[in-house]
Amino acid sequence: EIAKLIEEADLTKMGASFSLQSLDPNTLSAVKRTNMKISYDPNYIMDKFTQENIPFYNDVIIGLPEETLKSYTNGLNFLMKNDPLDIMIHRLYLLENAEVFTPASIQKYNIEYSLQAQLPSKYKDEVEWNRIIASTSTMSQEDMWYAVRLRDFVNMFWLGKIVYYIGRYLQKEYDINIAELFLSWIIFTKEKNCDFWKTLYKMLRDAYSNVAYDHENSTTAPRVNRNVNIWMYINANAKNREYFYKEFYNFIIDNYKVKKEILNDVFIFNKCFTFDHRFKLYKEFNTEYDWVHYFQHNELLKEKTTYKVGIKTIGYNKVSAESTNFIRGKFLLSGGHDYLLNKLHALTYDFGLKTNSSSKYFIKNFNATKLTIDNSTIEKNLSVAKTAYWNTQ
After folding, report:
1. Confidence class of residue 359 from pLDDT cuts 50, 70 and 90?
2. What is the mean pLDDT of residues 110-116?
3. Per-residue pLDDT at 339
4. pLDDT surpasses 50 at 217
5. CA 196-314-345 angle, 5° bins
6. Per-residue CA distances from 111 to 26, 144, 319, 350 (Å)
7. What residues contact 384, with CB distance under 8 A and at least 6 apart?
8. Does the pTM of the predicted model rise above 0.85?
């Protein structure tokens, strides 16, 4: 009830928070969270929020005691099927006076850790160091690497909407577990080791190695967010974008039995509905199927559909797109914002019209946060987006 009131008043950025940390019973027992119903039976509240059309997000921690790569992947599969607005995936740090950082726990779970700088700085005495979990008795260093890369793929490609609608189609029609698909994809890209993926993995290791977007600088730490940087590496470069989607398409065709005609169409929808290197505030495109209807009602209609889409606000803090300059706007659209955390939020067009037989407005998440404005208001906003300053760049 509280979350519903807050959402209706537009006072939330991501909806309600469900801090699950893990969905593995052994892990929940080890970290003493079995007394929390939401941890071992999250369906009851997620279903309620979905029915009431209230957005929510989840928190997950990598490296908890008793967690395995398989149980972690299964947990992400479950969450991605429930389609939260966001999944915040954290690394486990060893903090002073935490029970997991006692000699008994370290010995029991064979915990090894490494030091990681909290924030970069050119002044050594300003750097704070974290003890970050490197391996446990149930997750080797190699497994930890894959777990962290899986986090990155979820952040960049799912939450970053680059393959989100493609993935939702594969989930719904073929019951494909997207986290498992991503894990297989990571193995494939690591073995392929071509220039595109070598550069991408290097950018994950060092955000300053290849900065792909206009970022804000300070005297001590340039604001280079890895997820934003890679999102721009793919979407702000036409050649990279085409290579990425072609390779992902071939990967699906080679590993899963799917209908190519429909897969081609959902690729068109996903690519067009996600911002690209042109960063236009207004766009029109066509598909052979009505994908908005599909994601809203779980019914795929083969009906030629034209979409008129625009964006009104950008970034985590909902800045007016109309009043934002091009450089600042690109930064916000790719996930940057003035708030403390750099998450990916304004990557798709947030309002628009379908111009087939059932012309109705839609919103970017389709199944979360109802929009209570009429078509005439949508048309007015689209007109503003169509003539906005950005489109002259």
Report:
1. low
2. 94
3. 45
4. yes
5. 55
6. 16, 12, 44, 44
7. 310, 322
8. yes
